[in-house]
């Protein structure tokens, strides 16, 4: 299994470490030519969605990534990555891949709750340590989106087809079960993308 991690900006190293622990090979997507290599899934890491969105366009990576995502390539998107995937963003005029039919709110917890830790339930996993850093949450989902986790009534993890997305940072807590869930999606769909 070979997973491509978008490494133009943000918290990608921890994702790579976790994927290595789970026995995966990773490649880094830093520039357009990196997209020519074969891979089975994509990780869109946390960071700053505005910067990431700008860079993938400037580096001419947007169209190829968009085509892969539209084609059903499995993707794990965390925090800023979730914002890149979202069809709608409540408090930002920018739109990026728009493949995930949800509305997110950026920096949704305000200043005081900019960063916090929460032990919560994830459907299919159980109690899981969630690390939120200037996180978004999901305000609304379309009917066919599966809600995997909520914190205080706000949606923080979803699955839609081959897209797994979380408002928190599963790569930071040393608990590999969320990444394993993503790899299970990749295994089920190797033929696509
Ligand atoms: N606040 C960031 C954004 O809006 C996301 C933060 C994160 O990825 N930890 O893009």
Number of strands: 12
The backbone outline, from C-alpha atoms, is: globular
Q: Let me know the average pLDDT.
A: 95
Number of helices: 5
Helical percentage? 10-25%
Which cofactors or ions or other ligands sit in this model? glutamine
- Uncertain regions: pLDDT < 50 for 5+ in a row? 189-193
Report strand %: 25-35%
Given the helix and strand composition, which structural class is it?
alpha/beta
Folded structure, characterized:
- The protein is α/β, with parallel strands linked by helices and 193 residues long.
- Strands 2-1-3-4-12-11-10 form a seven-stranded mixed β-sheet. The protein has a three-stranded mixed β-sheet with strand order 5-6-9. Strands 7-8 form a two-stranded antiparallel ribbon.
- Glutamine binds next to helix 4.
Briefly say what this structure is.
The protein is α/β, with parallel strands linked by helices and about 190 residues long.
Secondary structure layout plus pairing:
Layout: E1 2-6, H1 13-21, E2 25-29, E3 41-44, H2 49-58, H3 62-70, E4 75-78, H4 80-85, E5 86-89, E6 100-105, E7 115-122, E8 126-133, E9 137-141, E10 146-151, E11 154-160, E12 163-166, H5 177-188
Parallel strand pairs: 1-2, 1-3, 3-4, 4-12, 5-6
Antiparallel strand pairs: 6-9, 7-8, 10-11, 11-12
Bound molecules: glutamine (GLN).
Which structural traits does this protein have?
disordered C terminus; 193 residues; 3-stranded mixed β-sheet; globular; 7-stranded mixed β-sheet; 5 helices; alpha/beta; binds glutamine; single chain
């Amino acid at each position: 299994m070979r997973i491509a991690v978008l490494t133009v900006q943000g918290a990608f190293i921890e994702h790579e470490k976790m994927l290595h622990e789970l026995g995966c090979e990773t490649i880094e997507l830093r520039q357009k030519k990196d997209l020519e290599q074969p891979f089975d899934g994509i990780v869109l890491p946390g960071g700053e969605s505005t910067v990431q969105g700008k860079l993938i366009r400037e580096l001419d990576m947007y169209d190829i990534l968009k085509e892969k995502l539209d084609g059903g390539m499995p993707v794990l998107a965390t925090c800023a990555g979730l914002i890149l995937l979202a069809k709608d963003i409540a408090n930002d005029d920018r739109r990026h891949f728009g493949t995930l039919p949800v509305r997110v709110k950026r920096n949704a917890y305000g200043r005081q709750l900019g960063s916090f830790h929460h032990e919560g339930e994830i459907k299919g996993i159980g109690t899981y340590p969630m690390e939120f850093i200037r996180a978004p949450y999901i305000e609304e989902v379309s009917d066919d989106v599966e809600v995997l986790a909520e914190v205080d009534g706000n949606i923080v993890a979803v699955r839609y087809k081959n897209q797994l997305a979380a408002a928190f940072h599963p790569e930071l807590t040393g608990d590999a079960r969320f990444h394993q869930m993503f790899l299970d999606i990749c295994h089920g769909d190797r033929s696509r993308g």
